[in-house]
């Protein structure tokens, strides 16, 4: 079973790129972030024609998350992160596909930091940690994936000294991520590639992609039930080089059958 995550940076504006990627790589499940489309503007028919069922939580101009499944049913579990009934951002959606709980998230960026946006980010991360603990305790196979907007270590960013005060790399952010990981989650990419330079995001400015001046901020966290089935993982780096592509590259894992 191949599961992918992709921050599409505008699902309608970059629909040709998304459809080409789906056709070429054919993930069984694709988690999308930053749809930047209201609920009624999600391109459901085009996704269906590509062979995928979909659930999504849209928001006008900003945010937005979706889960697509190829030739499989999607059993939606929730479309909001619990813990703050006043939070209206569409940043989390969760479903069961082929017996696996899949949480798709678009964690807040948090810049400028310090400030209200950074406080919101840290609060969101704590809510996510509490929800992840409940999923862990459920005993079900779980995959938590998406754009975390977290650079875990200096090894995950080009020239880390330039990012010290950025919300993606500030000490508070990394400590919150470590607190989440302390529950026992496995970082799929780092399990298989512990020392390699691997990025998932390249800015549009200063030829960042051409220079490979990137960040690793799109992650797969696995509990023991899914970690035991992990056989492969990678980044479709070439997609970032396509015309009118997102500034993120798709990331994927493969799980063996039970």
From TrEMBL:
It is an enzyme of class 3 (hydrolase). Probably binds two magnesium or manganese ions per subunit. Keywords: Hydrolase, Magnesium, Manganese, Metal-binding. The record marks 248 as: Interaction with DNA substrate. Mg(2+) binds at residues 7, 34, 147, 149, 247-248. Residues 4-248 form the Endonuclease/exonuclease/phosphatase domain. One of its GO terms (molecular function) is double-stranded DNA 3'-5' DNA exonuclease activity. The keyword Magnesium applies. Its EC number is 3.1.11.2. The record marks 149 as: Transition state stabilizer. Its cofactor is Mg(2+); Mn(2+). PROSITE patterns: AP_NUCLEASE_F1_4. The record marks 218 as: Important for catalytic activity. One of its GO terms (biological process) is DNA repair. InterPro entries: AP_endonuc_1, Endo/exonu/phosph_ase_sf, Endo/exonuclease/phosphatase, ExoIII-like. The active site is at 106, 147 (proton donor/acceptor), 248 (proton acceptor). Belongs to the DNA repair enzymes AP/ExoA family. NCBIfam families: exoDNase_III, xth. This is Exodeoxyribonuclease III.
């Amino acid at each position: 079973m191949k599961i992918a995550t992709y921050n599409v940076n505008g699902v309608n504006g970059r629909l040709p790129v998304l459809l080409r990627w789906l056709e070429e790589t054919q993930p069984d499940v694709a988690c999308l972030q930053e749809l930047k489309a209201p609920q009624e503007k999600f391109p459901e028919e085009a996704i269906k024609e590509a062979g995928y069922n979909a659930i999504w939580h849209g928001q006008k101009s900003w945010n937005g998350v979706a889960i697509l499944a190829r030739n499989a049913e999607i059993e939606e579990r929730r479309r909001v992160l619990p813990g703050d009934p006043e939070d209206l951002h569409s940043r989390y959606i969760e479903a069961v596909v082929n017996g696996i709980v899949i949480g798709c998230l678009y964690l807040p960026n948090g810049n400028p930091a310090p400030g209200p946006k950074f406080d919101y980010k840290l609060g969101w991360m704590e809510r996510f940690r509490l929800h992840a603990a409940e999923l862990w305790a459920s005993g079900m196979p779980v995959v938590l994936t998406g754009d975390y907007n977290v650079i875990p270590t200096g090894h995950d960013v080009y020239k880390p000294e330039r990012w010290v005060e950025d919300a993606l790399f500030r000490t508070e952010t990394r400590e919150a991520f470590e607190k989440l990981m302390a529950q026992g989650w496995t970082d799929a990419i780092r399990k298989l590639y512990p020392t390699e330079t691997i990025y998932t995001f390249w800015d549009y400015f200063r030829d960042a992609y051409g220079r490979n001046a990137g960040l690793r901020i799109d992650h797969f966290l696995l509990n023991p039930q899914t970690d035991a089935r992990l056989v492969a993982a990678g980044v479709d780096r070439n997609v970032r080089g396509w015309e009118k592509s997102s500034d993120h590259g798709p990331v994927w894992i493969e799980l063996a059958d039970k």
